[in-house]
């Protein structure tokens, strides 16, 4: 086995390397730029990584020196000194990623020119005297003007804090100011030298991802994920909209729960990183339109019934204090524009993160798979977008033994010569099957001829058995699973996958038709999102979810929405671009297309 | 008696007319423009006034018809049909003043071009459909653009309210929007046809004046005055600053009490006028620098010690919600700039109200007398300003029998042939003496030779008697007063007046010196403020408080700061002008002038 697969976490990228290559080389070839101050000589510890799974070469002396025994026992290694001996899974801690690297997806991604809306201004003022009677604010504005910035705009509370801190700190402070038109919005008054940090958030229906970014270097300082507490009010956005529409109080409750968990998670992140809330001076949040509205506190009633129009599609900027987010007193929350009721700011952020494909004038598809799958087709500078109701099957819901992608979930299935081999997340005994597992299973069952073009399970296989008048396939029997119950694939499971992949494929086909091009003309097929990044491409092609294109045209880019959100923390230009992108998109409402239903029905079949 | 004095309330203007003239003619000659739709024919009731004091001709038939018996019993008359038979005091209700009239002071005052920052936009939108999937905000912005306005800027709370009201009101609402740069700040979502109202406030150390102004017509809708509740924390601003500096809580307390009484008074005004808080869509507040800071919640510590610099001298705009003012949800408070620690936004507002004197290129003095007296000298397009510590004598404080200008206060004193005649406010038996009374008394005593150039009372007069080793003058004896105690003028009282008038005169002299002109060159001498409007000019000249100029050069203009505040509700241009005025003023800090003390000492003498 000379081909070794290296999986890099948390960026979620995989690369196949030859045996003998180091982890640093693997990361470099995967387009993940790691810090390696000494150029791979092993004399700095900047390329530190943590081994999660798989065997590698033993630590060399320089690693023992640089890292110490304790870190090595915890799995830490220098990427430049470590060669994998088999397929490995490796975690790259944020500090080992170069500034701005975090801002790149899959090599093609252009760098972000650091031009953040919020910047630091270090002040050192002369105190007032009888010869200089200028007010505190006049004094500060004079310095801002010298530095090419407009006069401070702030409410009295912040101006009062500024005045008091100037006097306490001997007239030396650091200001965080937001460059807005001709004014400088005062965000925070900090001690000299304090780091300015931005908070980017991807507010998924299921999971919230929080990122802290150094606004001066662009470096990703920390990131974390947490479950969306709104789940207890409804598994999907449709049921949460219904809950919110019961009354103001219920809608407010959904918002409050969300903001509370964010505040709590942010507090923990800040403590871990030695930051205070006053240093979180800018916020970008993305999410689907429903999450966007619920987070901001906008009514969601219009999203609950046709024609599903958003209350706000425009980019929003509002004080973080308005919704009780505990960040710097003058910080604003920026929400990128929504395209439609079911194509939200998260999709715009993904378009921003993958903008290099657009910029090159290429024909590209961007697909973010979820309960609703948003698709954009970029062709000749035009963007066509739609949303398909692909359902929650890929999140493990509505599947007989379905579960989220968590330890013990079957993520790969191999069928060979009547035998079934399953691979689980974490390598544990299986407890269920996640989205990529069920997709993989269906593809394997198709290949093995166990299911036919209509999705019917044939009784020919030894693992197929009848159940309630229908057939089901036993993936793992009672002796194999962790809980001693069987894990099966039912006819209904197969049908759920057919509905899901049919909806996605139909959306793709309608967009291609709208642009008037055949699928073969698509040069880049970008698969974004957690599921999209972990799915087995071959399986997706096998079941017909995606059109058959050469594998090298596919790019599994991970959480592009999160990357876009982080990039927009760092660039005023990208926020501008987001507004333009959203304005220029041609949105296709599938439900109004007479050709949608026949296309959808056709796409449900396997071929 | 063919000369009759007509006092017009609440504008506080007096005019002497010939017997036979109507009250409408009196008002017109006084420069108070009343509504008189029928041109004085007595066939409309638009020139309605209320008689407070004095005899007039009996009601004619047309008045009985137009007003009805009940109103006439309450003292109401038509100004065009009523001739005074003796000195009268008349109240002009706000509705009888023409739109914009309220915005004029003393005839010379230029009209305000109606160009308010906050304007009404009536919307009538097409609801969303499958053919028109635009978001609610996009729909609204399209209309704004058609009308030459920028896109709405608002937080989610207001945008949510907009969305909900659009749906409830069948897509017809009235918006109040603030024209700010390229955006339209959403202030309030109202039913179609709702009046847009602005709140102007003059926040005096002693009294708060509130004015409601129709932002579309410019008409003054209502006004009221209320005592400043901060008085219980300190009579003057110096003691309130000291109180505020005890801690954050104390400073907050001063602000809270102020905002509470304003909210309460505003609620009453609104109820009276049938308005709701959402209709109060703009706020202008003026006050001295300390009141400005305490109202906004800025620290006042720097105002408490040399060099007395303000925290903010720039114009301020901030959400009314930040300080808890109960007006429309998106309303902002505009505070005009401060010039210095003791020349505040109220003086800037007075300069705006009296700007026609500046505009004409004339040489003018603007004097606003209070505990601190602010003075501006306008000469050749330049403004020189200073503040003099004139003390509280003119407010009746530090005077033996001093009191505020309230019923029973002696406001005029006549000394003739050894007899003393006093006139009180309201004509009641005297209970004390107010600022204009003590000024008048000192002038009379000087004329009668009872006090000499140094302010010493001579025992030659029958009413002079010794008291604690010093002389005092009995103005009213035990039989004359309401409380059966004497009312006297003491040596110390005279001395207080010397200190006050000396400080004011010294300020005037220093400014004239700075501009390099003699007093005679002053073409307009504008006396603003409550005391300035009621003082007896001849007395002020007699005691040497003002330089001797022909009486017609003096203009007692009333609450110019309040007028300026109201005008700034109606004009973006005037707010711009306020910023320019404040920037261009040459502020003279009297305490740093070596010539101040000798000038002050010299000015304390009577001549």
TrEMBL record, chains A, B:
Recorded hits in InterPro entries, A to Z, give: 2Fe-2S_ferredoxin-like_sf (IPR036010), 2Fe-2S_ferredoxin-type (IPR001041), ATPase_NBD (IPR043129), Beta-grasp_dom_sf (IPR012675), Corrinoid_activation_enz (IPR052911), Raco-like_middle (IPR041414), Raco-like_middle_sf (IPR042259), RACo_C (IPR027980)
Q: Where is the 2Fe-2S ferredoxin-type domain?
A: 2-96
- Gene3D superfamilies named among the record's database cross-references: 3.10.20.30, 3.10.20.880, Domain of unknown function (DUF4445)
**A molecular function GO annotation:** iron-sulfur cluster binding
Q: Spell out the PROSITE patterns in the cross-references.
A: 2FE2S_FER_2
Lineage top rank: taxon:
Bacteria
What is this protein called in UniProt? DUF4445 domain-containing protein
Its source organism is Anaerolinea thermolimosa
């Amino acid at each position: 086995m000379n081909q070794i697969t290296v999986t890099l976490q948390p960026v979620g990228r995989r690369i196949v390397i030859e045996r003998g290559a180091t982890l640093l080389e693997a990361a470099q070839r995967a387009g993940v730029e790691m810090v390696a101050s000494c150029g791979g000589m092993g004399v700095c510890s900047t390329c530190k990584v943590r081994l999660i799974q798989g065997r590698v070469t033993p630590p060399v002396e320089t690693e023992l020196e640089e890292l110490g025994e304790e870190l090595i026992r915890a799995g830490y290694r220098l990427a430049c000194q470590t060669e994998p001996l088999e397929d490995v899974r490796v975690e790259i801690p944020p500090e080992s990623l170069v500034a701005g690297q975090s801002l790149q997806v899959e090599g093609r991604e252009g760098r972000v020119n650091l031009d953040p809306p919020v910047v630091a201004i270090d002040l050192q003022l002369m105190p007032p005297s009888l010869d200089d009677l200028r007010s505190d604010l006049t004094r500060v504005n004079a310095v801002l003007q010298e530095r090419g910035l407009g006069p401070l705009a702030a409410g009295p509370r912040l101006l009062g804090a500024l005045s008091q801190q100037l006097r306490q700190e001997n007239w030396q402070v650091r200001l965080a100011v937001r460059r807005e038109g001709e004014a400088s919005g005062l965000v925070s008054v900090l001690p000299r030298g304090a780091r300015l940090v931005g908070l980017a958030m991807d507010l998924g229906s299921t999971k919230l991802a929080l990122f802290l970014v150094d606004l001066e270097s662009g470096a990703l300082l920390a990131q974390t994920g947490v479950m969306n507490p709104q789940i207890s009010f409804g598994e999907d956005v449709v049921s949460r909209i219904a809950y919110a529409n019961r009354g103001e109080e219920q809608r407010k409750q959904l918002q409050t729960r969300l903001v509370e968990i964010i505040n709590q998670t942010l507090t923990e992140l800040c403590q871990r990183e030695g930051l205070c809330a006053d240093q979180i001076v800018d916020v970008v949040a993305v999410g689907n339109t429903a999450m966007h509205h619920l987070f901001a506190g906008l009514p969601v009633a219009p999203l609950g019934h046709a024609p599903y129009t958003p209350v706000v599609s425009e980019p929003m900027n509002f004080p973080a204090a308005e919704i009780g987010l505990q960040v710097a007193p003058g910080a604003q929350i920026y929400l990128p524009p929504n395209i439609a009721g079911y194509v939200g700011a998260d999709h715009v952020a993904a378009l921003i993160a993958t903008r290099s494909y657009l910029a090159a004038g290429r024909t590209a598809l961007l697909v973010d798979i979820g309960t609703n799958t948003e698709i954009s087709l970029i062709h000749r500078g035009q963007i066509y977008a739609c949303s398909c109701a692909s359902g929650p099957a890929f999140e493990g819901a509505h599947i007989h033994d379905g579960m989220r992608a968590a330890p013990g979930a079957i993520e790969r299935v191999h069928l060979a010569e009547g035998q079934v081999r399953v691979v689980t997340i974490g390598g544990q005994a299986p407890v269920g099957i996640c989205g990529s597992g069920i997709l993989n299973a269906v593809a394997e069952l198709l290949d093995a001829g166990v299911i036919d073009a209509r999705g019917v399970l044939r009784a020919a296989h030894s693992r197929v058995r009848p159940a309630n008048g229908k057939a089901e396939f036993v993936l793992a029997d009672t002796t194999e699973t962790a809980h001693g119950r069987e894990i099966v694939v039912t006819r209904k499971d197969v049908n759920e996958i057919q509905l899901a992949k049919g909806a996605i494929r139909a959306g793709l086909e309608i967009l291609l038709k709208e642009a008037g091009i055949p699928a073969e003309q698509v040069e880049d097929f970008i698969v974004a999102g957690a599921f999209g990044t972990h799915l087995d491409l071959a399986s997706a092609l096998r079941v017909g979810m995606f059109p058959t294109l050469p594998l090298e045209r596919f790019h599994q880019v991970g959480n592009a929405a999160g990357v876009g959100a982080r990039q927009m923390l760092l660039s005023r230009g990208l926020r501008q671009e987001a507004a333009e992108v959203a304005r220029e998109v041609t949105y296709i409402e599938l439900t109004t297309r007479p050709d949608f239903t026949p296309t959808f029905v056709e796409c449900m079949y396997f071929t």
